[in-house]
Amino acid sequence: MKKKDFLEGLIVFGVMTGLLLPVRLFFVAYVSSDWFSSFGIISSISIAILILTKKRKLGKFGEMFERQIAKLQSGKVGKIVYGQSIVFLLILGGTIFAIEQGNSVYVDLKEQILEEYEEFSEPEKLLEKTGEMEIQDWVYGSIGMFFAIFYAFPQLAAVFAVLNESFDGWILHFYTVAFVEYLELFGILLVFRFAFSNKQSKFVT
After folding, report:
1. Taking each helix axis from N to C terminus, what angle separates 59-73 and 170-197, rounded to the nearest 10 degrees?
2. Which residue range(s) make up the domain with 143?
3. How far apart are CA 85 and CA 72, in angstroms?
4. Is residue 203 part of a domain?
5. pLDDT tens profile 122-134
């Protein structure tokens, strides 16, 4: 039974990835390079798959899809998925907000940091320093960053903005892409949960 579940999960994941990822990449490459403008495309396709599944139009794949979604929504796995999504959304959204604030509200502080710390203008040196950091350095840094959110947000926002500028905006780009993906995934999970909560499917065992 576990082997069957694993194979079904692998098939569903492969089909969904093979369908959704090319659509997203095609939109960004040929329609708009702004990832936020593509928001909703994956949701629309996923909802269409959901409707076809509910109408029993997808055959065996629909049965596998419904079983896997139902299992994903229940028990410990469901709590982990929802909890992880919320945590990542907070981290990603908070970082995007901090960078935007650093480039606008705290731009003077950002310029001051750039003047006082020349190494920020050389990404290679920054990467070299991070490579020299020990595990405890990352732990202490993460703890310090957490407290900085509440007690030194202007400085934190300015540093994030400086780092983003040092890497030619790639940090903001990466976090924006990840935020959009997780936000859409979270919305899709909620839609699936509502759709399958009213009546358990005969295919779910």
Report:
1. 100
2. 2-197
3. 13
4. no
5. 666 666 666 666 7
